[in-house]
Amino acid sequence: MAKAKSIRHHFVPQFYLQGFNSPYVWVYRKDNGAIIKSSVKDTAVHQHYYSFTTKAGTRDSQTLEKWFSEVETSVAKIYRKILNKELLNNEERSRFATFLALTLTRVPNYRENMVNKPTAELMKRMQVIMASNKEHFKAHIKRYEKDTGEKISIPIEQLREYLLKGNYDVKVGNPDYSLSFIFSTAQKVAPIFHGMKWAFLETTENEYFLTSDNPLYYMDPTYKLGSFYGVGLMNRKLEVTFPLSKNLALLATWEGSTGYLQANSSVRETLNWRTIVSAQNFVFAPEKSQTLNQLVQKYKNSSPKMRVS
């Protein structure tokens, strides 16, 4: 009997979530305050998340999922070396930097907020610009009708006025579009992560780090809101945080420390706060805690400004 094809795709790797599993992953929802007990297998997974349309017009649900599985198998070995405090060679460091870059770009937060939404906003602005010139807009619609053989169902002027008012949303409906950005952006970002200084922050057994559906986060604690320039990965004060397990987290900087360092309660709380803030909707923890849930709800709409010292 042929093996059934999997359409359940994990956007956060299962081997990674095992580090926060005790023996369940507790999922804290930012949108409605629910706390859900989940298995690693059923956490951070969407149906057809990596599926795409082939040139033949069929849906391929296996190619990218298989590729990610192979990458994760390879990286899991490096991951264990980090957890065991073993030094990485340059090749291993490079492969892990690529994994970090993919962790940034493969999640729903990146695909929706960094690709689809900006694209939709650009499309809407272009429509308004096109509709602002009455004669050009009319000529454009006429060309469209001639090229496609289709007639628009409302008067041209009514359509133009509707577009100018802007009381509508534009959505990028094709998931294939954002998939292409996962790899192109990761390819550019990986060398940057590789060049940064890596510190591994340890916490005690009775304290733990959180993770989320958007586990890798970067910020410049010195950045002032409203500044003309945004926060880029080359900002010299940049801090990249990535929880590796419930007792270990990566802090990558351009000017900070390296090696394995003990994180005090204040640092752990700051990193956990950033994890809560950066989560799109789900925060993952190794235990059920009403206190943690209150924190998730308190900061679900906040923006991080604190600095790890």
What is the spatial order of strands in the main beta sheet?
A: 9-10-11-7-12
Poorly predicted parts:
305-309
Count all strands and give the number.
13
Q: SSE string, helix = H, strand = E?
A: EHEEEEEHHHHHHEEEEEEHEH
Overall helicity:
40-55%
Radius of gyration: 23 Å
Q: What does the main sheet amount to?
A: 5 strands, mixed
Distance between the termini: 58 Å
- Global outline: elongated
Which band does the percent of strand residues land in?
A: 15-25%
The mean pLDDT is 90
Q: What is the number of helices?
A: 9
Which secondary-structure class do the elements indicate? alpha+beta
List keywords for this structure.
309 residues, alpha+beta, disordered C terminus
Q: Could you give a short description of this structure?
A:
The chain has helices at residues 14-17, 63-83, 90-105, 108-131, 134-148, 156-165, 175-195, 265-278, 290-298, and strands at residues 8-10, 25-29, 35-38, 45-47, 52-53, 59-60, 197-202, 211-212, 217-219, 239-245, 248-253, 259-262, 282-285. By secondary structure, it is an alpha+beta fold. Helix 3 runs antiparallel to helix 7 and helix 4 (108-131) packs across helix 6 (156-165).
